[in-house]
């Protein structure tokens, strides 16, 4: 450790105020005083719940206070919203001694909170106590050095936040560019487009309506709605079936390469992908299987299903209030317009070229965001090792 620095327990330089267990019967969406719950502290600017009742003013949090969520993810954040109440399982760092610059703790504490989170056992959710927080030991330089470090970090982190905001906006713009073009294709149409019924151009079926035993190991993949993403099949969380179970399901619904998979049930209904797998697999009934005729190109159909206008059209055929569900009978009755097969091929080729360019841009912006996060970690590490010089760190 750098000469002149010393290690201090947080309990020696500050105090912690635990939140109060406000009566949930007096929670309101509109009336009363904003109530800070764990889910509110990351954004640090607004709450989703108010408390419409009497309260002790000592639990009022003000802008600039530092809060820690004590369940789930352990992290310290600055509150920048209106005065709000400190709810249970959220604590406030306060009553800092004259040895300590409060923002020095804000910048340094999350490393230690994450270390505690990583080793905390849990059944449903991880918990941390104020006692554990107060026992955290941090390296502490003299106050003038703390002030110097905080001034540099404030400047650099503001620049990083601006750079991140720009990268996130560029990422959003790249995604919206493709979505806008896709929407335009199916809104404007063109000459020669004809109205068709899905059941007239596709053979439609679905997977098993039973729940076969599935494990992390087995001979045949068992694909459910969680594996269907826009345009592709995600195999990162795949289950498997025995050959006997697979054969019973496969007899009903036999997916082959090139078939269209469409989520027709549940919260993610409306997502479509082309099957690009060579292997046999089984399907759950929440996923419909469409075998396209020579009238419609599979990739054209998937682009339509994933477009905003296509989703809206298909969702107009749903059944059920509690669970979103499109029956096979209603799927067959979905009507929409398609051009000639040759025009479909041209449209898909243009869309895929644009998608490839969009993907490149997204990769650049995601890499930029990742680099900025690594830069933050590197700067913090140097700051709390006493290695942060006076040279201005440039962020681009």
How is the topology of this model organized?
Layout: E1 6-9, H1 10-13, E2 15-18, E3 27-28, E4 33-36, E5 49-51, E6 60-61, E7 66-69, E8 76-78, E9 84-86, E10 90-94, H2 102-119, H3 130-134, E11 137-140, H4 143-188, E12 194-197, H5 198-201, E13 202-206, E14 220-223, E15 228-229, E16 232-233, E17 239-241, H6 243-250, E18 260-263, E19 272-274, E20 281-283, E21 287-292, H7 298-306, H8 308-315, H9 328-332, E22 335-338, H10 341-383
Parallel strand pairs: 4-9, 14-20
Antiparallel strand pairs: 1-11, 2-10, 3-5, 4-5, 6-9, 7-8, 7-10, 12-22, 13-21, 14-17, 15-16, 18-19, 18-21
Number of helices: 10
- Over all CA atoms, what is the radius of gyration? 28 Å
pLDDT below 50 for ≥5 consecutive residues: which ranges?
Answer: none
The count of β-strands is: 22
**Structural class of the helices, strands and pairings?**
alpha+beta
Largest sheet: 5 strands, mixed
Q: State the end-to-end distance.
A: 31 Å
Adjacency order of strands in the biggest sheet: 3-5-4-9-6
**Mean pLDDT over the full residue set:** 93
Q: Kindly state the percentage of residues in helix.
A: 25-40%
The share of residues in extended strands comes to 15-25%
What does the overall shape look like?
elongated
């Amino acid at each position: 450790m750098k000469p002149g620095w010393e290690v201090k327990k947080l309990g020696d330089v500050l105090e912690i105020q635990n939140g109060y267990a406000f009566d949930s019967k007096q929670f309101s969406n509109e009336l009363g005083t904003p109530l800070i719950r764990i889910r509110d502290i990351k954004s640090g600017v607004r709450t989703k719940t108010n408390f419409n009742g009497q309260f002790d003013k000592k639990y009022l949090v003000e802008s600039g206070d530092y809060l820690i969520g004590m369940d789930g993810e352990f992290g310290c954040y600055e509150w920048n919203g209106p005065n709000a109440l400190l709810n249970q399982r959220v604590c406030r760092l306060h009553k800092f001694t004259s040895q300590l610059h409060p923002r020095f703790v804000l910048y340094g504490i999350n490393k230690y909170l994450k270390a505690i989170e990583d080793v905390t056992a849990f059944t449903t959710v991880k918990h941390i106590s104020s006692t554990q927080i107060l026992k955290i030991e941090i390296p502490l330089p003299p106050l003038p050095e703390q002030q110097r470090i905080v001034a540099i970090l404030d400047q650099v982190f503001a620049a990083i936040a601006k750079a991140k905001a720009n990268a996130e906006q560029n990422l959003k713009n790249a995604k919206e560019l493709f979505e806008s073009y896709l929407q335009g294709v199916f809104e404007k149409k063109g000459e020669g487009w004809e109205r068709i019924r899905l059941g007239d151009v596709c053979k439609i079926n679905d997977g098993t309506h039973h729940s076969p035993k599935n494990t992390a190991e087995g001979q045949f993949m068992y694909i459910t709605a969680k594996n269907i993403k826009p345009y592709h099949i995600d195999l990162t969380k795949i289950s498997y079936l025995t050959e006997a179970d697979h054969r019973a399901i496969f007899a009903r619904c036999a997916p082959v390469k090139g078939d269209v998979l469409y989520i027709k049930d549940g919260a993610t209904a409306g997502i479509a992908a082309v099957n690009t797998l060579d292997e046999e697999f089984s399907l759950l009934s929440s996923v419909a299987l469409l075998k396209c005729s020579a009238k419609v190109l599979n990739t054209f159909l998937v682009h339509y299903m994933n477009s905003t206008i296509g989703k809206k059209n298909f969702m107009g055929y749903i059944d059920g209030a509690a669970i979103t569900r499109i029956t096979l009978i209603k799927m067959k009755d979905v009507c929409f317009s398609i051009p000639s097969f040759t025009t479909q091929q041209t449209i898909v080729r243009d869309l895929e070229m644009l998608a490839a360019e969009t993907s490149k841009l997204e990769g650049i912006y995601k890499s930029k965001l990742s680099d900025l996060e690594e830069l933050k970690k590197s700067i913090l590490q140097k700051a709390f090792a006493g290695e942060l010089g006076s040279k201005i760190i440039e962020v681009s």
